[in-house]
Amino acid sequence: MGLEFYTSKLGDAVNWARKYSLFQYPFVTACCGMEFMALWGPKYDVARFGAEFPRFSPRQADLLIIVGTITERQGPVLRRVYEQMCEPKWTVAFGVCASTGGFYQNYSVMPGADQCIPIDVYIPGCPPRPEQVLDALQLLQDKIQKGEGYIQKRERAEHEAVKAGKLKVVG
Amino acid sequence: MSAAALERAKQILGTAVRSTHDKCGDETLVVDATTIRDTMKALRDDSELKMNFLVDLTCVDYLGNEPRFEVVYHLRSMTTGARLRVKAPLAEPADGSSPEIDSLVPLWRGANWFEREVFDMYGVKFRGHPDLRRILMYPEFVGYPMRKDYPKERRQPLVRRTPDEA
Lengths: 171, 166
Ligand code: SF4
What we know:
The structure holds two protein chains of two kinds. Chain A contains six helices and four strands, in the order αβαβαβαβαα.
């Protein structure tokens, strides 16, 4: 126990704070955007979950929501937006297009945004109901609390590697 | 609906017209592709027809037919309200290179992006086009995706996750 106990408790508190203060960057490309707007409106009010602030700069956001169809041509842009976000960061694929490519099977559509960036939560539906999105948000909050987001897991793995002497911290 | 316009068009175009029909009320002229610019100019500038608006320009790939391609133009007269469809059958050269047809940009500037799209999707070259580049697909893209022999499973990704992110 000792230090380990306190750091894990501190980690829990930090994760608790993180999960209720998600700053989202909406990457809206297609029809799913309409349902995304409903989510923000007073009826479904995503603000109740502490995620109401859209940030239109990825540098100020920690939740990337990919709303709509991603084409191969957009791939490098999406990748760059993701890379510009500061860690820790999370990603949600909103709708089947962002999750799998949806009903598109052709030369131009990327078969899921996870082809080019890691995704934490997938929301099915074409478009998804706002309730589904709220459900997904809660799933994501659970993941954040448990430290199971992709970036969190990677951070932990890196931490372990440093402790085991497999990875060196430089600078 | 535009039967009179079709009659008039047949009159002024003469031998450039290969056939005509009016299936489903769409008056259509099938014309010689080699003289397409003169044909369209005649339709546009005729004092009776006044086909002054190029509504659309696209292409169809009839794979297995001869000639393989058909460039399709839709015209409308903003003065008389008549509409005409003009089709120009275009054979694929035996060496597999791109078929060519004259550009209509000198007649309608609006043809510019339509022709770029047809070039991008079907690989039809428009002679005399000021800037014939891909318009929807990225420059690295190989092939012409709307051709019937482009495999639908074929992907040409620009970026993918790195292996350690999988
Ligand atoms: S999942 Fe459906 S609603 Fe959403 S972007 Fe795709 S096609 Fe549009």
